[in-house]
Amino acid sequence: MIKAGIDIGSVTTKCVIVKDGVIFGKAITKTPLNIEKAIDNVLQKAIEEAGIKEEEIKEFVSTGYGRKQCKKANRFITEISAVAKGGHIFGGKKSCLIIDVGGQDTKVVEVNDRGLVTGFLMNDKCAAGTGRFIEIMSNILETDINGFSSLAMSSKNPIKINSTCSVFAESEVISLITSLTPREDIAAGLFNSIALRITTMVRQFKNIDRILFCGGGAKIPALKYYLEKNIEKELFVLHEPQFVSAYGAAMIE
Amino acid sequence: MKRYNTFIGQQYLKILKYLTDKRKNISFDYKNEIEKYRKASDLKTMNYLYEVISKKKINIDKPIVGYFCKTIPEEIIIAVGATPLRLCNQDIYCAEIGEEIIPGDICPVIKAICGYLQNDIKIDLLVIPATCDGKTKLAEILTPIFNDRIYFIDIPRNSDYIENIDLWESAYLKFYDYLKNRFKAKPSRKELLSVCKMTNKRTEIFRKIYQLRGEKTGIINSFDYFILTSASFYLSPSDWSEHAEILYKELLGKVVKQNYRKRILLAGSPIIFPNFKILEIIEDSNCYIASDILCSGYGHLFDPVKIDEETELGIIRALTLKYIAPNLCPCFLGIDKLLNAILENMDKYTLDGVVYYNLRLCNVFEIEIPILKDILKNKGIPLLVLKTDFSREDIGQLKTRLEAFIEMLK
Q1: What is the pLDDT of residue B6?
Q2: Interchain proximity B404–A65, CB inside 8 Å
Q3: Under an 8 A CB cutoff, do B397 and A118 touch?
Q4: What pLDDT does B7 receive?
Q5: Parallel, antiparallel, or unpaired: how do β-strands A2-8 and B125-129 relate?
Q6: Cβ pair B387:A116 closer than 8 A
């Protein structure tokens, strides 16, 4: 059976075409103001890649913060259930803890061996510890996200940054720049502060033997490095981390 | 509270004057706001109660004693011939005005109360209990406006009644004497008794509705329920009971049409009109609030006055047991009471989970959460914490949280 999962996130919209549990086509685009357009766009691309016709799609499940805007969907599920399902399958169908660092939300989801959510935490309404925070900070340091990550990885002497609020952190960073602190040390300090924030969320769960990492944030090596350092556990970055929720949506029973 | 006057300068009084003028320019009209919820209602009796809230129907023939919090005994206010008016407020506009007097990271309810008092309801006496830090300081802040019209009740925050009953009793007796002097009234023991009977009648009918709501899914939506409880802030106990009785009869004959997905218990910070944001989120997700233990609903109406000894002292003692002993407010010591109330309700009405509403900046509610989480987890009861304030920008995120919680319950 062919199914489509679409994840309308705050920054990017993702679509996955799944046939009998295997991904045949996938596409990603920035979420514009016109969500309908983004949905059509990724769906067409994914269908092209899968080499099927739209009529062949039997079920269409949408997730993410714009899920209700997707008129084609037969079902809506929250990104929590979606990431749990996708992460559980990608992660070898065992009980686990999933860290999903997205654009405006960071989620930590506890999943049992049957792929069901047993608990979850999301960041507060501000952007602290999310993809947006990383983006803003890389702008301040006049680089892109990849450059920001490499800067952080090259630091030998990470400084301590206390603030995880993007507004306060900005002023803290600017004062550090003016006091001639090396950029790489600031970058490392910023990643460490985000990682600390996520670590407090992770620590609220008892079973942290197996931690999976996904969402756009999982593509940033520095974030993974500092998370592992703080949690003191190895993190498994899932294959195609940005598509985990879309895949999970398509696979929901 | 006169002595504080000297500390607070003329500049401050000017600010208050400016705020009073500003208040007049902001529409204090709840008509549009209330229409949204009235439309969702399918109960005839509710019409009147919605009107009570939107028009703030109170008995102005008698002196009005405004008070905050559920720890003030209404019975003795009524006995001295005054009208009790609970002023707890959650209006976002009032909070904005209050912000100019108390800026910073202070509980929005305190700000809203401060802003609300700028409007024209004439209050003859303002009673402020020391139930939380915000309210305690409010007594000082409001002194320039109310001068000697403020009465401050110092209530010990240990709700263990064996230990503290004497302290509460003396605080209530002092308050009663003060009221008698102030309003030149000498209510007899019988008069006080008859007021207690009146509030007991109110409790009786409230309990019937509370139970019916828990047993029959969808019998009353949460907007109606909280309008009903908020109406008790304005209406006299006998008026309220009369309408609640009619409502109860209407509920018995009601055919439930709406299908709800899950039945939950709502706990945590109070919900007072017009801040029905949490209710909107819960109703939108098709979740039924089958039970609540909030101080604005359950806490205000659920407990009766149980009099052992029909002397004046005996009645006052019974009142402390009604108002303070069963207090679930996290400002008080005694989380065991909260846990017992949750477990009892979960068990009695076979509910699917607990939603704990944590009003941002009312920090005591947050302090409780780790203990609550731990114990409910051990008991296998799902718990969702929704932390927010009066603003509406995070509705999307809160909905996602609640829906994920519902999906988790399946």
Answers
A1: 44
A2: no
A3: no
A4: 45
A5: unpaired
A6: no
pTM of the model: 0.88
Compute CA B385 distance to the chain's CA centroid, rounded to the nearest angstrom.
20
DSSP state of A253: -
Q: At what angle do helices B277-284 and B395-409 cross, to 10 degrees?
A: 40
User: Does A89 map to a domain?
Assistant: no
**Domain that includes residue A185, residue range:** 94-237
DSSP state of A216: G
A29 in a structural domain: yes
Average pLDDT over residues A37-50: 91
Residues A139 and A180 in one domain: yes
Which of A68, A75, A80 is the best residue to mutate to test the B interface, defined by the most B CB atoms within 10 Å of its own CB? A80
Task: Kindly report the backbone phi and psi dihedral angles of residue A101, in degrees, each rounded to the nearest multiple of 5, phi listed first.
Answer: -100, 105
Write down the H helix ranges in B61-216: 74-79, 92-101, 108-116, 133-141, 143-146, 161-182, 189-215
**Chain B residues with CB inside 8 Å of A80's CB?**
400-401, 404, 407-408
Residue A151, CB-side half-sphere exposure with 13 Å CA sphere: 22
Identify the band that residue B5 occupies on the pLDDT scale cut at 50, 70 and 90.
very low
- In terms of residues, how long is chain A? 253
> Does residue B1 register a pLDDT over 50?
no
Cα dihedral sign for A51, A57, A59, A63? Answer: positive
Alpha helices in chain A (DSSP H): 35-50, 79-90, 131-140, 145-153, 166-178, 183-202, 221-231, 244-251
B376: closest CA of chain A, how far (Å): 13
Q: What percent of chain B has pLDDT over 70?
A: 92
For B93, phi and psi rounded to 5 degrees? -70, -40
Return contacts of B16-19, CB within 8 angstroms, 24+ apart: B16/B101, B16/B118, B16/B144, B16/B145, B19/B97, B19/B100, B19/B101, B19/B115, B19/B118
ipTM: 0.84
The answer to whether residues A194 and A127 belong to one domain is yes
- Dist CA B243 CA B183 (whole Å): 29
Q: CA-based diameter of chain A, in Å?
A: 61
Q: Are residues A103 and A225 in the same domain?
A: yes
DSSP B333: B
Tokens 């009003």 sit on residue: B359
> Is A204 found in the same domain as A104?
yes
Q: How many domains does chain A have?
A: 2
CB contact under 8 A, A78 and B393: no
A151 in a structural domain: yes
- Asked whether residue A86 is domain-assigned, the answer is no
Does residue A230 share a domain with residue A114? yes
Phi, psi dihedral angles at B252 (to 5 degrees) = -60, -35
- Amino acid identity, position A202: V
Considering the domain architecture, whether residues A117 and A68 belong to the same structural domain is answered as no
- Classify residue A61 as exposed, middle or buried by CB count within 10 Å of its CB (0-12, 13-18, 19+): buried
Label residue A232 exposed, middle or buried (CB < 10 Å: 0-12, 13-18, 19+): exposed
CATH number at residue A67: 3.30.420.40
Do the Cβ atoms of A78 and B396 come within 8 Å? no
Are A49 and A72 members of one domain?
yes
